[in-house]
Specification:
Elements lengths: L1 E15 L3 E8 L3 E7 L18 E8 L6 E10 L8 H17 L7 H15 L4 H15 L20 E3 L6 E3 H4 L4 E3 L1 H9 L5 H6 L4 H19 L4 H14 L9
Parallel strand pairs: 3-5
Antiparallel strand pairs: 1-2, 1-4, 2-3, 4-5, 6-7, 6-8
Length: 259
């Protein structure tokens, strides 16, 4: 039985039996892992207060060949996700970030880039950066790292520069020039293209100095959502819950998954 230790960001914590919890976490060196924290539900557990989704921690675990779940031996909290627990909107956003990463990160594969993306996004939210800006930056970069959403430079079909006019084809699969996109395509504004180009060279702090308009961020969210749904074949549960909850609170009609 081998002992491992690494920095990690917790993605999900669920109950197991009477006293234990299952923890899904993303590490720098070994990607996504799932493990059992024995006795974590007990009042005086050594894990008390440490197992919070999106918390950053140094985790130690034992791994046995042939077992799907590792056994968590220690959790040293490095950063509590205070900025994502203070209100309902923050909690919903945190759930979306965590579920996206849990969906796209691979089990047991090095994940330095994914770890840095999630770590920097949570850190920026702790510094009270605009939530919509952070969410769109994270969504676009995660899809890009997954190989689904390349930087918007030229049309992959004809080679025409996308800055001359772009659209997301109706299926939500590709960002193309307006001529290649076909019927039912979603036009992409120059502002959205600019944002998607800027994330290649600017971090969240730089972006926040000259942030896109709220309408541009909403457009980027719609583009990312269509690409995500096309790839997965469905919407993530956290997005459905967030949409339903925020719609009820605002009194607005609920947005449907396929839109």
């Amino acid at each position: 039985m081998a002992l491992h230790q690494d920095e990690a960001i917790l993605l999900a914590v669920t109950d197991l039996q009477e006293a234990d919890r299952i923890v899904e976490f993303l590490t720098r060196r070994e990607g996504k892992r799932r493990g059992v924290a024995r006795g974590a539900k007990r009042r005086f557990s050594r894990f008390a207060g440490e197992l919070q989704p999106l918390a950053k921690a140094r985790i130690g675990w034992f791994e046995k060949e042939g077992r799907d779940l590792v056994r968590i031996s220690s959790v040293e909290l490095l950063r509590a996700p205070k900025g994502l627990t203070g209100d309902l909107e923050a909690i919903l956003l945190g759930s979306c970030l965590a579920e996206q990463m849990a969906t796209f990160a691979q089990e047991g594969e090095p994940a330095e880039t994914l770890f840095r993306l999630l770590d920097s996004t949570v850190e920026a939210l702790e510094r009270r950066i605009d939530r919509a800006l952070a969410a769109r930056y994270f969504e676009a970069w995660l899809l890009r790292l997954a190989g689904l959403f390349p930087a918007p430079a030229e049309c992959p079909r004809c080679g025409r520069p996308l800055r001359e006019g772009a659209a997301l084809e109706a299926s939500g699969e590709n960002l193309l020039c307006a001529g290649c996109a076909g019927p039912g395509a979603l036009p992409v504004s120059a502002g959205a293209l600019s944002f998607l180009e800027r994330i290649s060279r600017e971090n969240l702090a730089r972006l926040s100095e000259r942030p896109p308009a709220p309408a541009t961020l909403a457009e980027v969210g719609e583009i990312a959502g269509r690409i995500r749904r096309h790839f997965l074949g469905h919407e993530l549960k956290s997005y459905v819950v967030a949409s339903q909850t925020l719609a009820r609170l605002s009194g607005q009609p609920e947005r449907r998954e396929g839109r």
